[in-house]
């Protein structure tokens, strides 16, 4: 059995009277994990502890089997892409990355080669010799991403990596993040834009008010919420007939008629799933198909944080 | 094969786990601090002009140098070697006096941004997640104004000594340098006190101010405030007066220089200076305060929270 790349156990962190992280326990293995939560959920504090920037107040955090705080052995293997615009505007991208890679202990030649490779990987090969001052917001974001990758880390932590990127760049970066996960690196992507995370991974850790409110794949989390109402869209040429039958079923809480569809919110979805084929075959109601519409991350997140 | 499959791989590439990790930080920070044509012109003018002028006076034994020498000796005729020795001492004191204000400004322009720029651009997390220690970060940044002062304080002084030695008759150059090794030691000593004091102050205000311009203004106010306090303490006896006079970093450096050169020169006696002990204590305290402030800052990311 392989140990998780990052292990957080009973972690609590606070700033003065503000409790930022409250008894969090979580494991992050190889592949991409989305770290989700609204502002103030404790994501950034958790990231700082995992990246070795803050020492745990209570609890333990290990990265590759070692405590990360003030630990150069761990820091060599961690790459952090900060949310803030943390690059030197006066220097070129290649100069900036070469410098930051040298701080990992690489000789100048090796650092330069690695920096160049990372910039090519994030799609900045044409602009790497220009001063960062002239870069767009999206290009600066790519520089931040490249500096997290240049030293070849095993653990990559990306804080809002798609901020400020245009659609094409988003697609490229999403593909890059997935590729990093496929290479076996432990990639933690923090975001509050749910569909972005959904495009990168199905595995998420959701936080709210400093606590972990869900941990697993989106589908697993949704299944665990079986006591919650589920919204199901039934596609039909006769929405009124379907609505008339559905309202008779136990657990149906709300019906919404739409053009060639009925939106059913029910606390007993199994009853509906069993009834739908019967309506089609015996009652002659034209049911074309059905699908749950709130297994999306957005819906799960809404359930958990409200 | 993935990382997952092979477990935790050992580091076998060319990364160095030990060594002078502050050197890249210093080089990058120095390059950043020295950037700009205006600063280059200022750097050259503020030191080069006084150096050329005083070098001219020294070479031709003329101008204010000879006037001060006459005042020093009361018109008494000195032998050639004594004249050369005394003229060199006066030239050194005069150079540091003339450049005092420019060196303060230069220190502020060069050093004010070393930490403040990292705080403003929120680049600190990029250091905190790399395998460097806070001491590496402190040394890399603190040495930037020190290195500038090597070029603009120590080197001109040594050049004047070499000029004075080169003016000796053939064969006496080396003997003059050996004879005046106390001057070289005094210059090194003066540089150490001045560089530690100035660099610590500007790096400290850079850490506190978080903006380059704010750091320049705050640093200038601290330098000015120190000089005003020192000026108002003229004639005040006892440790309190001594401590007040030591708030002027320039006066501290002058004290050390005069101690090294010999304090019999009237040119050097225009102002009352702090004691050597007070000069050392204040300089040391400033260094400790600067180190503590930077190390604390380099250990926390809460500034970006």
Q: What's a quick, concise take on this entry?
A:
By secondary structure, chain A is α/β, with parallel strands linked by helices.
Task: Describe this structure as you would to a colleague.
- The complex is a heterodimer of chains A (306) and B (305).
- By secondary structure, chain A is an alpha/beta fold.
- Chain A has two domains: 6-223, Rossmann fold (3-Layer(aba) Sandwich), CATH 3.40.50.300; 225-305, 2-Layer Sandwich (Alpha-Beta Plaits), CATH 3.30.70.
- Chain A contains eleven helices and 13 strands.
- In chain A, the strands form three sheets. In chain A, strands 5-6-7-3-8-9 form a six-stranded mixed beta sheet, with helices on both faces. A four-stranded antiparallel beta sheet of chain A has the order 11-12-10-13, with helices on one face. A three-stranded antiparallel beta sheet of chain A has the order 2-1-4, covered by helices on one side.
- In chain A, helix 4 (108-121) crosses helix 5.
- The longest helix of chain A has 16 residues, at 167-182.
- With 305 residues, chain B is an all-alpha fold.
- Chain B has a domain at 21-33 and 98-160 and 180-304.
- Helix content of chain B is 75%, strand content 0%.
- Chain B has 15 helices and no strands.
- Chain B has helices at residues 3-6, 22-33, 37-60, 63-73, 80-98, 100-111, 113-120, 124-128, 134-166, 173-179, 181-209, 212-232, 238-245, 249-261, 276-297.
- The longest helix of chain B has 33 residues, at 134-166.
- Chain B is globular, with a radius of gyration of 23 Å.
- Chain B starts with a helix and ends in an 8-residue tail after the last helix.
- Residues 1-13 of chain B have low confidence and may be disordered.
